[in-house]
Amino acid sequence: MKLSNKKFSGSVAARILWIWTFVLLLLPNICLLFTERVPAGEPWARISASFGFLLVPAAAYVALMTISRNVGKTVWTVFPLVFFSAFQMVLLDLFGCSVIAVDMWLNLVTTNASEAGELLGSMLPAIMFVTMFYIPPLVMSVFAWRHDWRIGRNFVRNARLAACACGGIGLLLLCVVLVTQPRVKVRNDMYPVNVVYNACLAVERFEQTRNYKLTSAGFKFDARALRADSIGETYILVIGETARSDHFQLFGYEKETTPMLMGRRGLTGFRNTLSESNTTHKSVPMLLSHLDARTFGDSVYRVKGVAEAFREAGFRTAFFSNQQRNGSFIDFFGEQADTCVFLRDNFSGPAAHGPKDKDLLALVDSELHHVKARKRLVILHTYGSHFRYDDRYPASEEVFCVDGELEVSPHCRERLVAAYDNTIHYTASFLDMLINRLEADSTNCISGLVYASDHGEDIYDDGTGRFLHASPLPTVYQVGVPMLVWVSDRFRHMNPAMAGAVAENAEKGVSSTRSVFHTLLHMAGVEALPLDTTQSLLSRGYKAPQPQLYVNDHNRAVLLDEIMR
Questions:
Q1: What is the pLDDT of residues 319-367, one digit of tens each?
Q2: Could you write out the DSSP letters of every residue in 181-215?
């Protein structure tokens, strides 16, 4: 009798564990029905595809989970799918839409430890959900495997019959949709097939990235300087981090975030600037090269960056970063400079105690005053305005009162915005100090500075609960970025046409991704094969990009208006 009761209780527990795991596997499919729009024209096709994308995976889950009657063994057999499910639910909580993207997989290996910690802090509710609902069945399954908890033969038979019926109906619906709706693709639209496909693409890109130095070895810009060697020239390119143009006083923001730049002689701001990516590992390489959304996916593994172009033209080049190396194209393009320094290479402490952007000034001073060169380019990659915001500036430079701890919550938005605005003020002060250095040397050479941020950030702006960046579908807050161009008095005197053009182009639409490379080379009088002066902000022939493009998760150029949330 005791043995019979033990078997009965084990059988009931086995069924509970089986059903619990099945629900967890199916949960993302159910949620994605409401968050994703199937790319089908007619309503009947969208409805049919949605049901097909639910029924076919459900049947597949059942088939996998009835391979063995030992439920503990079954749960660990489908563990990769359990992991995908947990990861997917965390992303849905964070971004409100989209499957696990290629960029998300790549972020797992390219995001540095400090930024990963900051991101985990913003996902606390999702992590608690995963802990409560995903960890218990995994723990129970170990016990179930050890004690041989089994589901009954009748349960298995009935489950398989239901799976055959659901799978058959789902396949029929999908066949009709796939034949009549060419835009619908199983690999893109059906979870978890799309997640596995994206993971495979991520592995492929990771391997291609590792081979970058081989595949780009023969690339040449055929660059040359058009101005005489007797003319001294110094240019600084500053790549910002997570700065939004709508938080710049220079562009009409109500707070005094950029007072030191207001009315500055020689400075032009471009308020209508958009980035073609909301991810650092794409946007920064595009800013550091001639690539944009149209060419990024096909060419990034074979080309070199702007530092190499200037080196070919005879310029002394330096790349100074206040970020950590992560084995990405940012590192590769930076290492093509004559001098390359990552301030955080030897720093392992808390981010709050790490180097700040103004610590880059010592490296700039050393380059400008102690390294002999008639022509030089200095590239700076800043720490900028990435969350956690109060780690990005010293406490002594807090201008807007944060008044308490920063919590990742809409209720804390006022504090988050105050801290974010402090990062913008700090960035503006940093840019002001760089311009002062260039002005101090303007009697000996002509000089200029270009600043553009890689992308922006959601900060609970419009009631949708969106926070941070890098979501698969961008918002205007994530792609609306500041771009600034400054040229010295002597530059304006020697190049009046360029000085006039930059003012004329100030109100035009700009893609920072397309314009930085061409503006910088045009400013420096460097001729190179990829140079396109119609994308230089110092050219009277400048043409605003039409339409505005965006490089999507699969590295394809798409219309920004069609995917922006």
A1: 999 999 988 999 999 999 999 999 998 887 777 789 999 999 999 999 9
A2: -TT--HHHHSTTHHHHHHHHHHHHHHHHHHTHHHH
